[in-house]
Amino acid sequence: MLISAQDNTRIARAVASAEAQSAGQIVTVITPRSDSYADVALAWSAFIAFLALAALEAMPGFYVGLVDRALGLWASEWTARSYFGLALSIAALKFAGTLAVLQWQKLRLWLTPAPIRHARVHARALAAFRVGAESRTSGRTGVVLFVSLAEHRAEIIADHAIADKVDPEVWGEAMAALLGPLRENRLAEGMEAAIARIGAVLAETTPRMATTTNELPDGPILL
Questions:
Q1: Which residue of 29, 40, 103, 141 has the lowest C-beta tally within 10 Å?
Q2: Could you tell me the pTM of the whole model?
Q3: Where do transmembrane segments lie in this chain (predicted)?
Q4: Where in the sequence is the domain holding 211, given as residue range(s)?
């Protein structure tokens, strides 16, 4: 289970409390990770295979001797076909071995460059915003708090009526309140703190009106 029923309730109550003083609608979205990073695993596997081929080209005598000793082929004569076969075998083994090791998701994520992780989280957050909040409120006042657990990253994306009044930098305090506890696996606590700060910004920029209704779910959406 991604989060416990108790944490689900805590987050929903925090959203309801934050929305009580504002016309803004907060949607929380939680995902275990924003991408499989399968392309990163393939890229690393191809790179390791290339390094193996480069090593073979740089020290062919060493590797040929190693194969001869391993197979008991003393003083055997290597043909061009044999060399190509050796190169193909080494590249294939290195590629397959690296790809197998990188099925371990934590290692795959660790080997993924930070800019790629950040871009994938942002892209997933935008997709969640478009599905979960964009233009889904009468006043276009939806705000998505998106949390990607494996990457320990979050995004706050607001619909037009909020984005026109609030600079993206304003959400920095809410992000800081979230990410500290998130790194310590205290997700609900971090989200409660972030939601409270988002609510404070919304109460100041988009006060609640008599006609304000709750148009989006309070509980977290789990992807």
A1: 103
A2: 0.80
A3: 41-63, 83-102
A4: 5-35+113-222
Read off the tokens for 73: 């082929």
Over its C-alpha atoms, the chain yields an Rg (Å, rounded) of 26
Residues 19 and 122 in one domain: yes
In whole angstroms, what is the distance from residue 117 CA to residue 33 CA?
10
CB-count exposure of residue 52 (10 Å: 0-12, 13-18, 19+): buried
